[in-house]
Write a structure and sequence with these properties.
32% helix; globular; 8-stranded mixed sheet; FAD/NAD(P)-binding domain
Length: 385
């Protein structure tokens, strides 16, 4: 047997590529996964680590719900940092309360478990929140969070220990992917070659090495997000995914299922925040630090450089001011700040079949942590029957 021949090669070591590898392995396939860096450093590790199907609509909601099951099943076998602390969307005014109730009506119809909380219930659970911000909330106790900088590494470790047919190689930049009659030949930058029956390319926002011409007019956009992390806050206890009024005014589930979504006015204090794509989320890490964010700036997929890598201090100031409307936050609490990037597409994901054997699956956007596990399961079923 040719040791360099596989049933599937996955290009990309992030969450989307890794779950493609995982579901192929469950089918008994021999899988090679190639990652260009020493370890994943892009979208998969630069996010909140929130697994929130409640924010999705259509098939992406279904993928997210399936993802909850997959994460929980893996967590039972190995600690990959999954925590079942739920999600809470906090409404701060009458209009946000209205769309929270409308989303509740939808989820009652489809049978997705949730609760509506009063102001008193919210403040009992989160007594450090400013009472004048809190009105009501919609709560999903079944939803999950993970530690993004930790989870992907532990998931790789889990797969390496569980599946004999899994090979993971780092520092392998794929430079060429050539289709032959009965296989695909992969060539890396150090001129190592591999062969496979099929290749799935989950390359995030790296469009300049492999199939550049394909991505030039693909409709992909790059989103730049700014986030902040506090010092460990031993006096604050913030379990779960905490999403706020601006999130209710942004997430697709509210837009899709709430009749009032497009009718409600934008308060004056939200306008500059909206112009910078800001909506405020909080998630507390295991060390007690709190991630705060985020913002959204956009460029064409082939023009990442236009976004730059610097941190816009005014955007951080806007986020911190809004965060302080919700929780007591100030500059002295902030330990670090960074920019994350992800690729997104107007069709929710970019699916291109270069040939019968070479398949591009990228641009899942901000849905990656929630929907990748369920989406990749369906993708592998389609590719391998």
């Amino acid at each position: 047997m040719d040791i360099n021949k596989y049933d599937l090669i996955v290009v990309g070591g992030g969450i989307l590529g890794t779950f493609h590898a995982y579901h192929a392995l469950l089918k008994g396939l021999k899988v090679l996964q190639l990652e260009k860096d020493n370890f994943p450093i892009s979208s998969t590790v630069r996010n909140f680590g929130q697994v929130v199907p409640s924010g999705m609509s259509g098939k992406w909601f279904d993928y997210g719900v399936r993802g909850l099951e997959i994460y929980k099943a893996i967590q039972k076998e190995m600690d990959i940092s999954v925590r079942n602390n739920g999600s809470i969307y906090i409404a701060s005014d009458h209009d946000e309360v209205q769309i929270a109730h409308e989303l509740s009506t939808h989820y009652k119809q489809v049978g997705y478990e949730h609760e509506l909380w009063s102001k008193e219930q919210i403040l009992a659970a989160y007594p450090m929140m400013h009472a004048d911000y809190v009105k009501e909330a919609i709560v999903f106790k079944q939803e999950l969070s993970v530690e993004p900088e930790m989870m992907i590494h532990r998931l790789h470790q889990y797969m390496q220990s569980k599946f004999e047919k899994y090979t993971l190689r780092f520092n392998k930049t794929v430079m060429a992917c050539e289709d032959y009659a009965d296989s695909v030949k992969i060539t890396t930058s150090d001129l190592e070659t591999f062969q496979a029956d099929k290749v799935v390319i989950c390359n995030g926002y790296e469009f300049k090495v492999l199939y550049r011409s394909l991505f030039e007019d693909s409709g992909l956009k790059i989103s730049k997000l700014q986030m902040m992390r506090t010092k460990p806050m031993k006096t604050m206890h913030l379990p779960g995914n905490i999403l706020t009024g601006l999130t209710l005014r942004r997430y697709e589930s509210f837009e899709e299922y709430c009749p009032s979504f497009h009718k409600i006015a934008v308060p004056e204090h939200y306008k500059e925040l909206r112009e910078n794509g800001i909506h405020i989320l909080f998630k507390q890490a295991v060390d007690g630090s709190i991630i705060i964010g985020d913002s959204h700036e956009y460029a064409k997929g082939s023009q990442l450089e236009e976004l730059g890598f610097s941190i816009n201090s005014h955007i951080n100031e806007l986020m911190l001011m809004e965060a302080n409307r919700i929780l007591p936050m100030n500059h002295n609490m902030i330990a670090s700040t960074w920019a994350g990037f992800y690729a997104q597409h107007k069709n929710e994901i970019l699916e291109v079949d270069v040939s019968d054997r070479i398949h591009v699956r990228t641009g899942i956007g901000g849905k990656g942590m929630t929907a990748s596990a369920g989406y990749a399961e369906q993708s592998i079923k389609q590719l391998f029957g």
